[in-house]
Amino acid sequence: MQDKYMLKLIRSEENPILTPSNLPWENLLVFNPGAVVVDDKIFLIYRAQGKGDLHSRLGMATSSDGINFERRTSPLYYGGGHADETLGIEDPRIVKIEGTYYITYTAVSEDLHAEINPNWREKIAKKPRIALSTTQDFKTYIDYDVIIPDLSGKNSSFFPKKVNNEFWLLYRKGAYHTYFARSSSLTSWSQSSPVFDKRPGMWDSKRTGIGAPPIETEKGWLLFYHGVDEQNTYRLGIIFLDLEDPLKILYRSPEPVLEPEKDYEKYGFVPNVVFTCGAVEKDGKYYVYYGACDHVIGVATIEKQAVLGLF
User: Fold this and answer.
1) Which residue has the higher pLDDT, 77 or 233?
2) pLDDT, tens digit, for every residue of 199-236?
3) Which of 31, 66, 100, 236 has its CA 20 to 30 A from that of 199?
4) What pTM, to 2 d.p., does this model score?
5) What is the 3-state secondary structure (H, E, C) of the chain?
């Protein structure tokens, strides 16, 4: 029997399941997909970049089995061309609330006052902002633009249901603090409180942030999250938050459940990266979709009951 503290995601033998195509808007990078189930199909909305510019766009792919995807040939870009997204939109996360799909993403523009991170190949300083669009059919969208004014932040997601008629939101401010906030209007967020951050000396000692949106279970809100160590290696772990009080952490992975091991996870646009924005439940398993090296997309699974048995 596998030690419950050493649970690991199992990669698909078909990985990577999505790679850059010959289309000009996604012929360089395809990565960091959000995921949601729509009429028994899995929809991925992923981040893509072409060789011709630094502009991040969103693409869409769908699947019946969770492994083999058909993608649209044109980008799914629904932003409004705002000043805060002059470098595009990144890292979408999707939840369904009362028949509407809420897509949070990072709107990115150049930050002329910030230092360029020497670890990134894109030699430009970016200013991230938390933005939102909603849709009911993935054809037409309501564009909310930036929803937390004057905040430089990213790694955001709604919880997949309202509580006391309020939206719940997780987001990161700074390099490693993840916060929880509530709103009844989508544009005014109150009682922002820290939830989790880095852990010195561990695999998530330098940066942390949410991965996939919260998944409601009988044990609590399940988060597949990412952590970064001092060598800038990105790994995935698990957090459970209390169903009624998401500021209370019930469980947090002492060890990662996925880390760069395969060549496509170790060598690419940004080396040694596994990074998720979406996970879904299917056939008694969690399917975790992740970007590898900011270059391709993989999927890894884990039995639901094994995760719920962690504590």
Assistant:
1) 233
2) 999 999 999 999 999 999 999 999 999 999 999 999 99
3) 31
4) 0.95
5) CCCHHHCCCEECCCCCCECCCCCCCCCCEEEEEEEEEECCEEEEEEEEECCCCCCEEEEEEEECCCCCCEECCCCCCCCCCCHHHCCEEEEEEEEEECCEEEEEEEEEEECCCCCCCCCCCCCCCEEEEEEEEEECCCCCEEEEEECCCCCCEEEEEECCCCECCEEEEEEEECCCEEEEEEECCCCCCEEEEEEECCCCCCCCCCEEEECCCCEEECCEEEEEEEEECCCCCEEEEEEEECCCCCCCEEEECCCCCECCCCHHHHCCCCCCCEEEEEEEEECCEEEEEEEECCCEEEEEEEEHHHHHCCC
Residue range 111-125, pLDDT digits in tens: 776 677 666 666 677
- How, if at all, do strands 153-158 and 141-146 pair? unpaired
The predicted structure's pLDDT at residue 234: 98
Strand pairing report for 234-241 and 249-252: antiparallel
How far apart CA 266 and CA 298 sit, in angstroms, is 13
- CA gap 110, 4 in Å, rounded: 44
pLDDT of residue 1: 40
Q: What is the dihedral sign for C-alpha 186, 187, 190, 195?
A: positive
- Angstrom distance (rounded) from CA 294 to CA 288: 16
Q: Which domains does the chain have, with CATH numbers?
A: 4-308 (2.115.10.20)
Question: Which neighbouring-strand residues pair with 126?
Answer: 110
Contact partners, residue 140, CB within 8 Å, separation at least 6: none
What tokens appear for 272 in the block? 């040694």
